[in-house]
TrEMBL record:
Signal peptide: none
InterPro entries reported in the protein's UniProt record: AAA+_ATPase, ABC_transporter-like_ATP-bd, ABC_transporter-like_CS, ABC_transporter_ATP-binding, P-loop_NTPase
Primary localisation category: membrane
Organism: Phycicoccus elongatus Lp2
Gene3D superfamilies in alphabetical order: P-loop containing nucleotide triphosphate hydrolases
Name under which the protein is recorded: ABC transporter related
């Protein structure tokens, strides 16, 4: 697969053009309902070769439904979904795809080695590649264990490793690091970054916004079955025009929240309650009011908003402070 990807992305000079030209997955005017519940509402999006796309949205936004259409496990009520220009349910399309669904479903009596061999045989994968994946996902010591005896986190790591066995052109991961400890998460991110850097295309949903920031070149925010924002992390944060003001102050939270433009007040660190972050829609007005109201403060810094603050601002009708 990587050869195909490398062919369409020959040099950094042409990346922008070629990435824009090569659509790996396409969703056009798609709607999907479950009874009275509208999960996807006339949604359109595309995934381009070499892109790493983070899908963000609150619970029930429609992310998993979108993924189920892309991976061919469900069909849209209306609209068109294609991967590699074909039907996502066709074996030809699916052979080029690696998937980790949200729920883990491994055969409980098979050993880890047998599962790797089984999936590897399907794709004609070399033993060397299987060994590399077992090592990268910290599974080498677990090869003789039955899948049913693995911990939740170990099963999760195995599921993500299996998504990469077939050397796929497109990998779709639904919350891949749920339940993983920090070390396992870091390892998994490192291996996914390698996949991405070697030219692979990645679609990932996660509730860890840090994960999206670490892995995604583009972010799609979905809410109520529709795309409400699409861009790089920076574009998304700029879109909501939030600024973060860091400062030290002894002023009470309510007084800070009442400053013009302010939408949330959070401690910068747990150890120092007087070091706070104000998220504001108008940094100038907030700072002016700080001074005018005679609020004591020091060490003031103004930065762009985090993805988390932008996400909350986009997907809640109330302010992040109230949503929290
Ligand atoms: N099989 C189903 N039967 C009935 N309703 C469903 C089914 N699957 C999803 N839904 C509904 O469709 C909507 C979208 O759900 P979906 O699982 O796609 O959201 P999500 O963004 O993946 O949420 P989460 O972050 O909680 O995983 C929700 O209202 C959900 O209750």
């Amino acid at each position: 697969m990587l050869h195909t990807q490398n062919q369409v992305r020959p040099t950094t000079d042409t990346i922008t053009d070629t990435v824009a030209d090569t659509v790996v997955a396409s969703v056009e005017s798609v709607s999907k309902s479950f009874g009275d519940t509208v999960a996807l509402d006339d949604l359109s999006m595309q995934v381009h070769a070499g892109e790493s796309l983070g899908l963000l949205g609150p619970n029930g936004a429609g992310k998993s439904t979108l993924i189920s259409l892309l991976t061919g496990t469900r069909r849209a009520d209306t609209g068109t979904v294609t991967i590699f220009g074909g039907d996502p349910t066709s074996p030809d399309s699916r052979r080029r795809l690696g998937v980790t669904p949200q729920a883990t479903a491994l055969p409980v009596t098979l050993r880890v080695r047998e599962v790797f061999a089984f999936v590897g045989a399907h794709f004609g994968t070399t033993q060397e590649h299987l060994d590399e994946l077992a090592a990268s996902f910290d599974l080498a010591d677990l090869l003789e264990k039955q899948c049913g005896s693995l911990s939740g986190g170990q099963q999760r790591r195995l599921m993500v490793a299996l998504a990469l066995v077939g050397d796929p052109e497109l990998v779709i991961l639904d919350e891949p690091t749920t339940g993983l400890d920090v070390e396992s998460r870091d390892r998994l991110w490192a291996r996914l970054r390698r996949y991405r850097d070697e030219g692979g295309t990645l679609v990932i949903t996660s509730h860890y916004l840090a994960e999206i920031e670490a892995l995604a070149s583009r972010v799609l925010v979905v809410d109520h079955g529709r795309v409400i924002a699409d861009g790089t992390v920076r574009q998304i944060t700029e879109q909501v025009q939030l600024r973060r003001i860091l400062l030290r102050t002894t002023a009470p939270e309510q007084q800070l929240l009442a400053l013009p433009g302010t939408v949330s007040v959070t401690p910068e660190s747990e150890s120092d309650p007087h070091h706070v972050v104000l998220a504001t829609r108008d940094a100038d007005a907030t700072v002016r009011a700080l001074v005018a109201d005679g609020i004591d403060f020091s060490d003031l810094q103004v930065h762009g908003a985090s993805l988390e603050e932008a996400f909350l601002a986009l997907t809640t009708h109330q302010s992040p402070a109230h949503a929290a």
